[in-house]
């Protein structure tokens, strides 16, 4: 009898996915869902044929360059693969896959919610009532926010998620602008009514709301650097559902504190799960909205991500190229 491949799964996955993995593979599941320590991760790549990883696993070059590293496939449960040294994996002949598409719409929904959240102040309002706060009753001048319609939204990264955000934002009456490595196809730009900015600097200086929707790659680390953040208008908002590392978070925090940027809505942070206490203070003051990395967190999405992981593993084991391979030149 052929031995089933050992598949080590670093985090707890939806029940239906774990059941299927047990049927198909010799699956070593992580039932108590504690993130793996660096030592456990080192050990996992030495014992597993296949590793199912998530954003919380730092799979560095050091982890992969161990002489007795055995793993042949790293099947990431997630779209972003910035936690994996893809170049080091490639050099060692290790295949890396991710789970694109299935989380696009959910992430775009959450981005849209965050685009609304700070200007329309609904988190602040809800928090006040939830805390049993004293509501003086309706007043013509109370809890006023800013209208979305007619404002300019600047999307950084016009891939699948950026485009899904643009479609939603257009329905809310926002004018769509974007910066990307290259313009999208004219047909898509037309459909989205989207204006391309080759210069990120120039776009930043003119937008009312900026939404970060690009992956973290070496080229996008601190893309919103201190210098660029200073180009943003005083009455503008920054939204990030991509990766915290794309923004110089400390400078963003300082600029909001100083009233140089109106506010921000952040689902991701530079040093997750740590959240800068100064951002928390700004949240209490209604200047920012903070979410704990929930962009793709739907039951449906997580099951579909798990199904994609299984397809990638099975195709790999059938000696075919898995559909969602990530190659260094894609970064
Ligand atoms: C996932 C994400 O929850 O897919 C991504 O890139 O940020 C999230 O949707 C996480 O990465 C799981 O690995």
Automatic annotation (TrEMBL):
A single GO molecular function term of this UniProt record: glyoxylate reductase (NADH) activity
Domain of life according to the entry: Bacteria
Organism: Nitrobacter hamburgensis (strain DSM 10229 / NCIMB 13809 / X14)
UniProt-listed SUPFAM superfamilies: Formate/glycerate dehydrogenase catalytic domain-like, NAD(P)-binding Rossmann-fold domains
Top-level taxonomy: Bacteria, Pseudomonadati, Pseudomonadota, Alphaproteobacteria, Hyphomicrobiales
UniProt name for this protein: Glycolate reductase
EC numbers for this chain: 1.1.1.26
UniProt KW NAD keyword: yes
PANTHER family the UniProt entry points to: 2-HYDROXYACID DEHYDROGENASE-RELATED, GLYOXYLATE_HYDROXYPYRUVATE REDUCTASE B
Residues in D-isomer specific 2-hydroxyacid dehydrogenase NAD-binding domain copies: 112-295
Listed InterPro entries: D-isomer_2-hydroxyacid_DH, D-isomer_2_OHA_DH_cat_dom, D-isomer_DH_CS1, D-isomer_DH_NAD-bd, NAD(P)-bd_dom_sf
Pfam families: 2-Hacid_dh, 2-Hacid_dh_C
GO terms for cellular component: cytosol
């Amino acid at each position: 009898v052929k031995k089933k491949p050992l598949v080590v799964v670093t985090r707890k996955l939806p029940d239906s996915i774990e059941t299927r993995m047990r049927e198909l593979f010799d699956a070593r599941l992580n039932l108590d869902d504690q993130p793996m320590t660096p030592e456990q991760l080192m050990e996992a790549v030495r014992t597993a044929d296949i590793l199912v990883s998530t954003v919380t696993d730092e799979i560095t070059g050091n982890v992969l360059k161990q002489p007795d590293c055995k793993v042949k496939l790293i099947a990431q449960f997630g779209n972003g693969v910035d936690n994996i040294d893809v170049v080091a994996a490639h050099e060692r002949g290790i295949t890396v896959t991710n789970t694109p598409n299935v989380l696009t719409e959910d992430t775009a929904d959450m981005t849209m919610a965050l685009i609304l959240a700070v200007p329309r102040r609904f988190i602040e309002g809800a928090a006040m009532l939830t805390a049993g706060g004293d509501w003086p009753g309706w007043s013509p001048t109370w809890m006023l926010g800013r209208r979305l319609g007619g404002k300019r939204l600047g999307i950084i990264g016009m891939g699948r998620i950026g485009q899904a955000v643009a479609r939603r934002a257009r329905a809310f009456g926002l004018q769509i602008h974007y910066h990307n490595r290259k313009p999208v196809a004219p047909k898509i730009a037309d459909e989205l009514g989207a204006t391309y900015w080759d210069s990120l600097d120039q776009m930043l200086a003119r937008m009312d709301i900026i939404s970060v929707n690009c992956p973290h790659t070496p080229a996008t680390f601190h893309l919103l650097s201190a210098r660029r953040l200073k180009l943003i208008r005083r009455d503008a908002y920054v939204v990030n559902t991509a990766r915290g590392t794309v923004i110089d978070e400390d400078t963003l925090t300082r600029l909001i504190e100083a009233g140089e940027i109106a506010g921000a809505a952040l689902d991701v942070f530079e040093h997750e799960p740590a959240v800068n206490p100064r951002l928390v203070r700004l949240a209490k003051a209604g200047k920012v909205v903070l979410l704990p990395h929930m962009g793709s967190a739907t039951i449906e999405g997580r099951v579909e991500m798990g199904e994609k992981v299984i397809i990638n593993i099975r195709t790999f084991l059938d000696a075919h190229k898995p559909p969602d391979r990530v190659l260094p030149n894609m970064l």
